[in-house]
Design goal:
This protein has about 325 residues and is of the alpha/beta class. The protein folds into 2 domains: about 120 residues, translation initiation factor eif-2b, domain 1 (Four Helix Bundle (Hemerythrin (Met), subunit A), Up-down Bundle); about 190 residues, Translation initiation factor eif-2b, domain 2 (Rossmann fold, 3-Layer(aba) Sandwich), CATH 3.40.50.10470. Helix 1 runs antiparallel to helix 2 and helix 2 packs parallel to helix 4. Bound molecules: ribulose-1,5-diphosphate. The site of ribulose-1,5-diphosphate has 18 residues, from helix 2, helix 6 and strand 6. The site of ribulose-1,5-diphosphate (RUB) has 18 residues, from helix 2, helix 6 and strand 6.
Length: about 325
Amino acid sequence: MFPTETAEKIKGMEIRGAGRIARAAAEALKHQARDSPAQLTAAFTAEMERAASLLVATRPTAVSLPNAVHMVMAGIHRAKTVEEAREGIVQRADAFIQSSQHAVEKIAEFGARHIRDGDTILTHCNSEVALACIIEAHRSGKEIEVFATEVRPINQGLITIRTLNDAGIRTNFIVDSAVRSFINDVDIVIVGADAVTVNGAVVNKIGTSQVAHSAHEARVNVLVAAETYKFAPRTILGELIPIEERASGEVLSDEVLRTMPHVTVRNPAFDVTPAEFIDLIVTEHGAIPPQMAYVIIREYLGWDITEFDDVTGRTAGFNGEDAVNIDKFF
Ligand code: RUB
Protein backbone atom coordinates (compact mmCIF):
# COMPACT_ATOMS: atom_id res chain seq x y z
CA MET A 1 0.00 0.00 0.00
CA PHE A 2 1.24 3.51 -0.85
CA PRO A 3 1.48 6.40 1.65
CA THR A 4 -1.75 8.16 0.58
CA GLU A 5 -3.87 5.03 1.02
CA THR A 6 -2.06 4.02 4.21
CA ALA A 7 -2.53 7.53 5.63
CA GLU A 8 -6.28 7.38 4.93
CA LYS A 9 -6.55 3.98 6.59
CA ILE A 10 -4.63 5.13 9.67
CA LYS A 11 -6.77 8.28 9.96
CA GLY A 12 -9.97 6.24 9.56
CA MET A 13 -8.63 3.70 12.10
CA GLU A 14 -8.83 0.82 9.68
CA ILE A 15 -5.18 0.44 10.62
CA ARG A 16 -4.86 1.09 14.35
CA GLY A 17 -2.76 0.24 17.40
CA ALA A 18 0.65 1.84 17.78
CA GLY A 19 2.71 -1.11 16.53
CA ARG A 20 0.57 -1.79 13.47
CA ILE A 21 0.52 1.92 12.55
CA ALA A 22 4.33 2.01 12.69
CA ARG A 23 4.75 -1.08 10.52
CA ALA A 24 2.17 0.15 8.01
CA ALA A 25 4.02 3.48 7.69
CA ALA A 26 7.35 1.71 7.13
CA GLU A 27 5.73 -0.51 4.50
CA ALA A 28 4.18 2.52 2.76
CA LEU A 29 7.53 4.34 2.60
CA LYS A 30 9.11 1.23 1.11
CA HIS A 31 6.44 1.07 -1.61
CA GLN A 32 6.87 4.76 -2.37
CA ALA A 33 10.65 4.37 -2.63
CA ARG A 34 10.39 1.34 -4.89
CA ASP A 35 7.89 2.97 -7.20
CA SER A 36 9.30 6.46 -7.39
CA PRO A 37 9.99 7.66 -10.93
CA ALA A 38 12.44 10.33 -9.63
CA GLN A 39 15.76 10.49 -11.48
CA LEU A 40 17.52 12.96 -9.24
CA THR A 41 18.32 12.43 -5.56
CA ALA A 42 16.87 15.84 -4.65
CA ALA A 43 13.54 14.99 -6.30
CA PHE A 44 13.52 11.53 -4.72
CA THR A 45 14.28 12.95 -1.28
CA ALA A 46 11.57 15.61 -1.60
CA GLU A 47 9.04 12.98 -2.63
CA MET A 48 9.97 10.72 0.28
CA GLU A 49 9.84 13.60 2.75
CA ARG A 50 6.34 14.51 1.54
CA ALA A 51 5.25 10.92 2.07
CA ALA A 52 6.90 10.83 5.50
CA SER A 53 5.14 14.03 6.61
CA LEU A 54 1.79 12.80 5.31
CA LEU A 55 2.11 9.60 7.34
CA VAL A 56 3.33 11.30 10.51
CA ALA A 57 0.41 13.75 10.40
CA THR A 58 -2.25 11.03 10.45
CA ARG A 59 -2.42 10.42 14.21
CA PRO A 60 -0.56 12.62 16.65
CA THR A 61 -0.20 10.50 19.79
CA ALA A 62 1.39 7.14 18.91
CA VAL A 63 5.10 7.96 18.97
CA SER A 64 5.85 4.66 17.25
CA LEU A 65 4.74 6.39 14.05
CA PRO A 66 7.32 9.24 13.91
CA ASN A 67 9.95 6.89 15.35
CA ALA A 68 9.36 4.32 12.59
CA VAL A 69 9.34 7.00 9.88
CA HIS A 70 12.51 8.49 11.34
CA MET A 71 14.28 5.14 11.31
CA VAL A 72 13.27 4.39 7.73
CA MET A 73 14.23 7.87 6.49
CA ALA A 74 17.54 8.00 8.39
CA GLY A 75 20.55 8.63 6.18
CA ILE A 76 18.55 9.54 3.05
CA HIS A 77 20.49 12.81 2.76
CA ARG A 78 23.79 11.00 2.62
CA ALA A 79 22.85 8.84 -0.37
CA LYS A 80 24.74 9.85 -3.53
CA THR A 81 22.38 8.30 -6.04
CA VAL A 82 18.64 7.64 -6.23
CA GLU A 83 19.39 3.93 -6.32
CA GLU A 84 21.42 4.14 -3.11
CA ALA A 85 18.69 6.19 -1.39
CA ARG A 86 15.98 3.80 -2.61
CA GLU A 87 17.86 0.73 -1.41
CA GLY A 88 18.49 2.34 1.95
CA ILE A 89 14.78 3.04 2.47
CA VAL A 90 13.75 -0.47 1.41
CA GLN A 91 16.37 -2.06 3.63
CA ARG A 92 15.56 0.02 6.69
CA ALA A 93 11.80 -0.46 6.23
CA ASP A 94 12.23 -4.23 6.05
CA ALA A 95 14.55 -4.19 9.05
CA PHE A 96 12.09 -2.10 11.07
CA ILE A 97 9.13 -4.34 10.26
CA GLN A 98 11.09 -7.48 11.07
CA SER A 99 12.50 -6.06 14.31
CA SER A 100 9.05 -4.84 15.34
CA GLN A 101 7.56 -8.31 14.89
CA HIS A 102 10.50 -9.82 16.71
CA ALA A 103 10.02 -7.31 19.55
CA VAL A 104 6.39 -8.37 20.00
CA GLU A 105 7.50 -12.02 20.26
CA LYS A 106 10.21 -11.20 22.80
CA ILE A 107 7.84 -9.11 24.93
CA ALA A 108 5.28 -11.93 24.83
CA GLU A 109 7.94 -14.29 26.18
CA PHE A 110 9.07 -11.90 28.94
CA GLY A 111 5.59 -10.63 29.79
CA ALA A 112 4.13 -14.15 30.08
CA ARG A 113 6.64 -14.88 32.87
CA HIS A 114 4.92 -12.24 35.00
CA ILE A 115 1.62 -14.09 34.69
CA ARG A 116 1.23 -16.93 37.19
CA ASP A 117 -0.80 -20.09 36.89
CA GLY A 118 -4.32 -19.25 38.11
CA ASP A 119 -4.00 -15.49 37.51
CA THR A 120 -6.83 -13.23 36.46
CA ILE A 121 -5.65 -10.46 34.14
CA LEU A 122 -7.36 -7.22 33.27
CA THR A 123 -6.61 -5.54 29.96
CA HIS A 124 -7.89 -2.29 28.47
CA CYS A 125 -8.24 -1.42 24.77
CA ASN A 126 -6.75 -3.63 22.10
CA SER A 127 -3.01 -3.94 22.32
CA GLU A 128 -1.31 -6.49 20.11
CA VAL A 129 1.65 -6.78 22.44
CA ALA A 130 -0.38 -6.95 25.69
CA LEU A 131 -2.50 -9.71 24.15
CA ALA A 132 0.64 -11.50 22.98
CA CYS A 133 1.79 -11.73 26.64
CA ILE A 134 -1.59 -13.11 27.73
CA ILE A 135 -1.79 -15.60 24.85
CA GLU A 136 1.78 -16.78 25.48
CA ALA A 137 0.95 -17.43 29.17
CA HIS A 138 -2.09 -19.47 28.06
CA ARG A 139 -0.04 -21.30 25.41
CA SER A 140 2.55 -22.27 28.01
CA GLY A 141 -0.16 -24.10 29.94
CA LYS A 142 -1.12 -21.55 32.62
CA GLU A 143 -4.78 -21.51 33.70
CA ILE A 144 -5.74 -17.87 33.25
CA GLU A 145 -8.86 -15.74 33.04
CA VAL A 146 -9.20 -12.25 31.57
CA PHE A 147 -11.34 -9.18 32.21
CA ALA A 148 -11.52 -7.08 29.03
CA THR A 149 -13.08 -3.63 28.94
CA GLU A 150 -15.48 -2.40 26.28
CA VAL A 151 -13.39 0.71 25.43
CA ARG A 152 -15.87 3.43 24.61
CA PRO A 153 -16.40 5.10 22.24
CA ILE A 154 -14.95 2.92 19.46
CA ASN A 155 -15.22 -0.40 21.30
CA GLN A 156 -11.78 -1.81 20.58
CA GLY A 157 -12.61 -4.26 23.39
CA LEU A 158 -14.63 -6.22 20.85
CA ILE A 159 -11.45 -6.99 18.90
CA THR A 160 -9.77 -8.01 22.15
CA ILE A 161 -12.50 -10.45 23.22
CA ARG A 162 -12.64 -11.97 19.74
CA THR A 163 -8.88 -12.63 19.86
CA LEU A 164 -9.04 -14.02 23.40
CA ASN A 165 -12.01 -16.20 22.53
CA ASP A 166 -10.26 -17.54 19.44
CA ALA A 167 -7.27 -18.41 21.63
CA GLY A 168 -9.62 -20.33 23.96
CA ILE A 169 -9.06 -18.02 26.94
CA ARG A 170 -11.85 -17.58 29.51
CA THR A 171 -12.85 -13.92 29.23
CA ASN A 172 -15.21 -11.54 31.03
CA PHE A 173 -16.34 -8.55 28.97
CA ILE A 174 -17.12 -5.49 31.11
CA VAL A 175 -18.07 -1.87 30.52
CA ASP A 176 -15.27 0.59 31.25
CA SER A 177 -16.94 1.90 34.37
CA ALA A 178 -17.03 -1.60 35.93
CA VAL A 179 -13.24 -1.76 36.39
CA ARG A 180 -13.27 -0.68 40.03
CA SER A 181 -16.04 -3.17 40.84
CA PHE A 182 -13.91 -6.05 39.61
CA ILE A 183 -10.38 -4.90 40.42
CA ASN A 184 -10.23 -7.03 43.60
CA ASP A 185 -10.79 -10.13 41.45
CA VAL A 186 -7.77 -9.21 39.32
CA ASP A 187 -4.14 -10.28 39.93
CA ILE A 188 -2.43 -8.20 37.27
CA VAL A 189 -3.30 -5.47 34.78
CA ILE A 190 -1.58 -5.67 31.39
CA VAL A 191 -1.92 -2.87 28.84
CA GLY A 192 -0.02 -1.57 25.83
CA ALA A 193 1.33 1.91 25.13
CA ASP A 194 1.19 4.57 22.45
CA ALA A 195 4.05 6.47 24.01
CA VAL A 196 6.36 6.28 27.00
CA THR A 197 7.85 9.57 28.14
CA VAL A 198 11.27 10.20 29.67
CA ASN A 199 9.77 10.31 33.18
CA GLY A 200 8.16 6.89 32.72
CA ALA A 201 4.61 8.08 32.16
CA VAL A 202 2.63 5.94 29.76
CA VAL A 203 0.27 7.34 27.16
CA ASN A 204 -2.37 4.81 26.15
CA LYS A 205 -6.07 4.53 25.30
CA ILE A 206 -8.34 6.84 27.25
CA GLY A 207 -9.32 5.16 30.50
CA THR A 208 -5.93 3.50 31.08
CA SER A 209 -5.08 5.97 33.85
CA GLN A 210 -8.36 5.21 35.65
CA VAL A 211 -7.65 1.49 35.36
CA ALA A 212 -4.10 1.99 36.68
CA HIS A 213 -5.32 4.23 39.47
CA SER A 214 -7.86 1.61 40.61
CA ALA A 215 -5.20 -1.09 40.39
CA HIS A 216 -2.75 0.98 42.42
CA GLU A 217 -5.35 1.60 45.11
CA ALA A 218 -6.15 -2.14 45.23
CA ARG A 219 -2.42 -3.08 45.20
CA VAL A 220 -2.74 -4.88 41.90
CA ASN A 221 0.40 -4.75 39.72
CA VAL A 222 0.25 -2.83 36.46
CA LEU A 223 2.44 -4.10 33.65
CA VAL A 224 2.86 -2.12 30.43
CA ALA A 225 4.00 -4.01 27.34
CA ALA A 226 5.85 -1.61 25.04
CA GLU A 227 8.41 -2.01 22.30
CA THR A 228 11.34 0.42 22.60
CA TYR A 229 10.18 2.38 19.54
CA LYS A 230 7.20 3.54 21.60
CA PHE A 231 9.51 5.55 23.85
CA ALA A 232 9.44 9.26 23.04
CA PRO A 233 12.89 10.85 22.58
CA ARG A 234 11.57 14.39 22.24
CA THR A 235 10.20 14.30 25.79
CA ILE A 236 13.84 14.64 26.87
CA LEU A 237 13.62 18.14 25.43
CA GLY A 238 10.48 18.87 27.40
CA GLU A 239 8.11 18.21 24.53
CA LEU A 240 4.70 16.92 25.57
CA ILE A 241 2.89 14.10 23.80
CA PRO A 242 -0.13 15.60 22.02
CA ILE A 243 -3.35 13.88 22.98
CA GLU A 244 -5.55 13.27 19.96
CA GLU A 245 -9.10 14.56 20.36
CA ARG A 246 -11.46 12.85 17.97
CA ALA A 247 -14.82 13.78 16.48
CA SER A 248 -17.84 14.19 18.77
CA GLY A 249 -19.86 11.91 16.52
CA GLU A 250 -17.95 8.92 17.91
CA VAL A 251 -19.57 9.61 21.29
CA LEU A 252 -22.97 11.15 20.47
CA SER A 253 -24.71 11.47 17.14
CA ASP A 254 -24.77 14.95 15.60
CA GLU A 255 -28.57 14.65 15.41
CA VAL A 256 -28.89 14.28 19.19
CA LEU A 257 -26.18 16.82 19.90
CA ARG A 258 -27.93 19.44 17.77
CA THR A 259 -30.93 19.29 20.13
CA MET A 260 -28.68 20.39 23.05
CA PRO A 261 -26.96 23.62 22.08
CA HIS A 262 -25.36 24.02 25.53
CA VAL A 263 -23.64 20.65 25.40
CA THR A 264 -20.17 19.99 24.01
CA VAL A 265 -18.76 16.50 23.63
CA ARG A 266 -15.10 16.03 24.58
CA ASN A 267 -13.48 12.96 23.08
CA PRO A 268 -9.78 12.57 23.90
CA ALA A 269 -8.54 9.25 22.54
CA PHE A 270 -5.66 8.79 25.00
CA ASP A 271 -4.63 9.67 28.53
CA VAL A 272 -1.45 9.76 30.58
CA THR A 273 -0.74 7.32 33.40
CA PRO A 274 1.99 8.61 35.72
CA ALA A 275 4.96 6.36 36.48
CA GLU A 276 3.86 5.92 40.11
CA PHE A 277 0.88 3.82 38.96
CA ILE A 278 3.01 1.52 36.82
CA ASP A 279 5.04 -1.35 38.25
CA LEU A 280 6.92 -2.54 35.20
CA ILE A 281 7.37 -1.77 31.53
CA VAL A 282 8.24 -4.88 29.55
CA THR A 283 10.30 -4.14 26.45
CA GLU A 284 11.98 -6.52 24.01
CA HIS A 285 15.17 -5.99 26.01
CA GLY A 286 13.57 -7.03 29.26
CA ALA A 287 11.50 -5.40 31.98
CA ILE A 288 12.35 -2.01 33.45
CA PRO A 289 10.80 0.11 36.16
CA PRO A 290 9.13 3.12 34.48
CA GLN A 291 11.73 5.41 36.08
CA MET A 292 14.33 3.88 33.73
CA ALA A 293 12.64 5.13 30.56
CA TYR A 294 15.51 7.56 29.94
CA VAL A 295 17.96 4.67 29.64
CA ILE A 296 15.85 3.04 26.93
CA ILE A 297 15.72 6.30 24.99
CA ARG A 298 19.49 6.77 25.26
CA GLU A 299 20.57 3.16 24.74
CA TYR A 300 18.12 1.77 22.26
CA LEU A 301 16.80 4.71 20.31
CA GLY A 302 20.18 6.43 20.32
CA TRP A 303 18.79 9.93 20.08
CA ASP A 304 20.93 12.78 21.18
CA ILE A 305 19.71 15.27 23.74
CA THR A 306 20.45 18.19 21.47
CA GLU A 307 17.70 19.78 19.40
CA PHE A 308 16.29 18.24 16.26
CA ASP A 309 13.44 19.60 14.26
CA ASP A 310 11.96 17.06 11.95
CA VAL A 311 11.32 13.39 11.45
CA THR A 312 13.75 12.78 8.63
CA GLY A 313 16.98 12.51 10.57
CA ARG A 314 18.53 15.48 8.84
CA THR A 315 19.10 17.79 11.74
CA ALA A 316 21.61 18.24 14.47
CA GLY A 317 21.13 16.02 17.45
CA PHE A 318 20.25 12.99 15.41
CA ASN A 319 23.38 11.08 14.57
CA GLY A 320 22.14 9.63 11.31
CA GLU A 321 22.03 5.94 10.59
CA ASP A 322 24.41 4.87 13.33
CA ALA A 323 22.27 6.53 15.96
CA VAL A 324 19.20 4.50 15.09
CA ASN A 325 20.82 1.13 15.00
CA ILE A 326 18.02 -1.18 13.97
CA ASP A 327 20.19 -4.17 14.93
CA LYS A 328 19.76 -3.11 18.51
CA PHE A 329 16.16 -4.25 18.25
CA PHE A 330 17.18 -7.86 17.74
C1 RUB B 1 -4.82 1.71 20.64
C2 RUB B 1 -4.16 1.67 21.98
C3 RUB B 1 -3.23 0.53 22.25
C4 RUB B 1 -1.79 0.96 21.91
C5 RUB B 1 -0.83 -0.22 21.92
O1 RUB B 1 -5.52 2.91 20.41
O2 RUB B 1 -4.30 2.56 22.80
O3 RUB B 1 -3.29 0.15 23.60
O4 RUB B 1 -1.75 1.56 20.64
O5 RUB B 1 -1.23 -1.11 20.92
P1 RUB B 1 -6.26 3.11 18.98
P2 RUB B 1 -0.22 -2.17 20.27
O6 RUB B 1 -7.25 2.02 18.84
O7 RUB B 1 -6.89 4.46 19.11
O8 RUB B 1 -5.18 3.07 17.92
O9 RUB B 1 0.30 -2.99 21.40
O10 RUB B 1 -1.10 -2.95 19.32
O11 RUB B 1 0.85 -1.42 19.56
